[in-house]
Amino acid sequence: SATSVGSRVRVWGTPSIQNRGILEIGDRVRIIAEPLATQIGVGEGGQMTIGERTFINYGCSISASQLVRIGPRCNIGSHTILMDNDFHSVEPERRDELPPSAPIILEENVWVGVRAVMLRGVTIGAGSVVAAGSVVSKDVAPRSLVGGIPAKLIRKL
After folding, report:
1. Does the active-site annotation cover 88?
2. Tens of pLDDT, residues 53-75
3. Any idea of the CA torsion for 118, 122, 127, 133, to the nearest 10 degrees?
4. Within a 10 A sphere around the Cβ of 122, how many other Cβ atoms?
5. Active-site entry in 88, 94, 152, 156
């Protein structure tokens, strides 16, 4: 159900893919969806781009209401979450309201560890690494190692 799929894309297992917008998958992308399914969803009017030679491991949830752009040569660990919308407000009287979306951008050659979470509106700079279990709530400069909850700079690479 992708809008476009590059050459030599490989998929293991059966991912759950819902595309009501634009889903572009680059050349040589690898998606693992076993033993747990990887979920990829693009909402109406949303856009998701997965760059060439990117690897997405099993159990990931990636959702684009507006924009999720994963650059070329990224590696995304198991059970990682990238969602450009929170899908509800936190105030009790507004929990049925859909808040605004904000793009998530992973630039070229970003590595994301197991069970990391990227919150809406973040850009992860080229060549950076997000440690396992981290929650990224702010932009990450290129060539940085970040980790923790919330993710903080550990060192420059």
Report:
1. yes
2. 999 999 999 999 999 999 999 99
3. -20
4. 20
5. 88
